[in-house]
């Protein structure tokens, strides 16, 4: 609050749940002198009898009532928020994450060395980048890899760490695909692997948006994703830029992977789709929604 009193900004944009609560308190303090915009970036709680979920819903409703507007990073999140809180449609704005920028483009050009990623390889390589946590549902992906290997050989590279690492490695062994899966752990530049892979797969149960899908599109690699709430449906334009399958359905996932590997889409089309989510486009949308574009234009004159 001291910072706000000293600097007197026109707009306060909050970027996570805790910041949203603080921003609403700031609105009560400063009133019309400060426009407050909380943002929605993660899956929302489901209305049930769970006390924690009930508290979260109360918080969401207080946020909806105590701000000048809401920014959601996906249309699905915006729709769900309006359903849960009764917020007016005009009060909630969708601005997708600004994923593609010069830093990402440079990292995509980096080289990477892996014995499976040779130029003349005969076995396709599937890549996923995810925390090894239940939300990402890599168990479904491993089962899909096992089914796919019954039809045609393939390999899976997994970039990421998490509490399910041991259980997932054990499942891969039980499924008979331990030799077809390489666990790479944390990688400082996963994007170099993306550009070399034959297919990228997202198997999540839920997402706020799904930045990694945009990153894969920017790399020009074909993608397959679960139709999870929220983000993949919008990023892939309801399947136009990559197959979407039901959450948890490893047979459907394996079938979509096989189809995409057999007939991949144009690299250029995928990269063009990623350009919808650039820093420049999304930044301009923020300036417009927050009412800052006119002030910015005035400074440039």
From TrEMBL:
GO biological process terms held by the UniProt record: carbohydrate derivative metabolic process
UniProt GO MF annotations: glycosyltransferase activity
Family matches, as SUPFAM superfamilies: UDP-Glycosyltransferase/glycogen phosphorylase
Domain Glycosyl transferase family stretches: 121-274
Pfam families: Glyco_transf_4, Glycos_transf_1
Organism domain of life: Bacteria
Boundaries of every Glycosyltransferase subfamily 4-like N-terminal domain copy: 45-99
PANTHER family named among the record's database cross-references: GLYCOSYLTRANSFERASE (PTHR12526)
Protein name: Glycosyl transferase
Native source organism of the sequence: Alkalilimnicola ehrlichii
């Amino acid at each position: 609050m001291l910072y706000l009193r000293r600097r007197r900004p026109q707009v306060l944009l909050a970027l996570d749940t805790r910041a949203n609560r603080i921003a609403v308190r700031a609105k009560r303090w400063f009133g019309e002198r400060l426009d407050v915009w909380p943002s929605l970036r993660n899956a929302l709680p489901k209305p049930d009898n769970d006390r924690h979920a009930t508290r979260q819903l109360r918080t969401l409703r207080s946020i909806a009532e105590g701000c000048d507007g809401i920014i959601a990073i996906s249309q699905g999140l915006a729709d769900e928020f309006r359903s849960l809180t009764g917020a007016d449609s005009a009060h909630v704005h969708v601005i997708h994450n600004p994923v593609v920028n010069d830093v990402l483009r440079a990292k995509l050009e980096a080289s990477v060395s892996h014995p499976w990623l040779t130029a003349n390889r005969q076995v396709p390589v599937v890549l996923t980048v995810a925390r090894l946590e239940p939300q990402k549902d890599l168990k479904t992906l491993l089962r899909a890899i096992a089914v796919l290997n019954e039809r045609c050989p393939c390999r899976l590279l997994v970039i990421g760490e998490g509490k399910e690492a041991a259980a997932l490695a054990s499942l891969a062994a039980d499924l008979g695909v331990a030799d077809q899966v390489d666990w790479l752990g944390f990688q400082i530049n996963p994007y170099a692997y993306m550009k070399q892979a034959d297919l990228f797969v997202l198997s999540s149960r839920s997402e706020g948006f799904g930045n990694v899908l945009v990153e894969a599109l920017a790399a020009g690699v074909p993608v397959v994703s679960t139709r999870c709430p929220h983000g993949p449906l919008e990023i892939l334009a309801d399947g136009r830029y990559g197959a979407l399958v039901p959450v948890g359905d490893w047979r459907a996932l394996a079938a979509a992977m096989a189809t995409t590997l057999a007939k991949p889409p144009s690299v250029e089309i995928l990269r063009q789709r990623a350009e919808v989510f650039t820093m420049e486009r999304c930044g301009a949308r923020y300036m417009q929604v927050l009412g800052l574009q006119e002030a910015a234009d005035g400074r440039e004159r």
